[in-house]
Amino acid sequence: MTTAASTHPAAHAASRPAAPPAFTPATGAHVWLGPQLASQTDWIDHFTAAEIKELLSALARTKAKFGDFQAVRRQDFDVPGLQARFRAVRRQLEQGRGFMMLRGLPLDDLSDADCKLLFWGIGMQLGVPLCQSARGELLAEVKDVGEKMGQSTSRAYRAAGPLRFHTDQCDVLGLMCIREPVSGGHSRIASSPALHNELLRSRPDLLAVLRQDFNFSRQGEAAAGEQAWYTRPIFAGQDDTFTSVFSQSHIESAQKLDGVPCLTDAQREAVETVARLADQHSLTVELRRGDLQFFNNHVIYHSRTDYQDHAEADRKRTLLRLWLAVPDSRRLPDAFAPFYGSTAPGALRGGILHASGRRYAFPDWEAAGWTAADLAA
């Protein structure tokens, strides 16, 4: 589908309308600029020797008892000495900067299957895993398997090369690096509330556009009865209901689908401006083997730099990925129901519906092994 031509920002400079009064600056620890954090390291935490010992002991016990990691519930991966650690991670994700890196897991003596079980056990301490594709993947490998980007059905985690800034269909994204590339492949993150504030300051006219509806492709993973695309704003809510869900690629993919209205000049300029600001204000993070990253998708955009990979298939850059619903998630604006399902705080939500009808690893918090005390902690 042919899209409307973009207009140079200077053409609108003399007539930019003021933002409506409801648009107020986002405040809090989740508002940050990458260049300011680049010289800091307090967003990196290291597992202690005692914590590593407890994690590996839990891995050995769970491995001996379960043949399939997907059957492992929260209490099955018993790590009482790390509960304070994981509560702190959850607080940082929802009330702090919105992201966290945990470093120092020793993986040299672990197989890929061991790594998956270990990451699953850690993820279950934070939330409940979600289906990440129509194939029903609950724990995905982020690895180049030859898929080509730019197609209406392509998925970025199965392709090589750099990735644009985007968010995923979950409250919290988790990544575990188990193999590094020859070079590159660094993670880049940006604070979406900070981008919102910059738009409010410099381009309130575009912020007003971004708080209106855009059409996004479902990338060939629509459930029965669903359209191939859905509609929602890019920015919505404020204060503790603020959320931003962004994917320039999925917006462009939707333009190739029959029945999707063409982007207006203002919409195209707004999307390009968000992508430019994310690039300008981002933080680059080098992922090492054994690193864990967690992002709150409501306040963090993420991307990836280009990389040179190993030629051998068994040495290729590989990350493990979890999409998590978390018990202390925020209430979402109603406009995000087509993307997340429930907008209630602390709900099981997000994920992609599998043909079996499954969207979550477990049907509810109790079945996943969360007690009332766990949910209240």
From TrEMBL:
Keywords: Oxidoreductase. Residues 71-323 form the TauD/TfdA-like domain. Residues 1-17 have a biased composition (Low complexity). The keyword Protein biosynthesis does not apply. Its cofactor is Fe(2+). The keyword Cytoplasm does not apply. InterPro entries: AlphaKG_dependent_hydroxylases (IPR050411), TauD-like_sf (IPR042098), TauD/TfdA-like (IPR003819). Pfam families: TauD. Residues 1-20 are annotated as: Disordered. Gene3D superfamilies: Clavaminate synthase-like (3.60.130.10). One of its GO terms (molecular function) is 2-oxoglutarate-dependent dioxygenase activity. It comes from the Bacteria. This is TauD/TfdA-like domain-containing protein. It comes from Bordetella genomosp. 9.
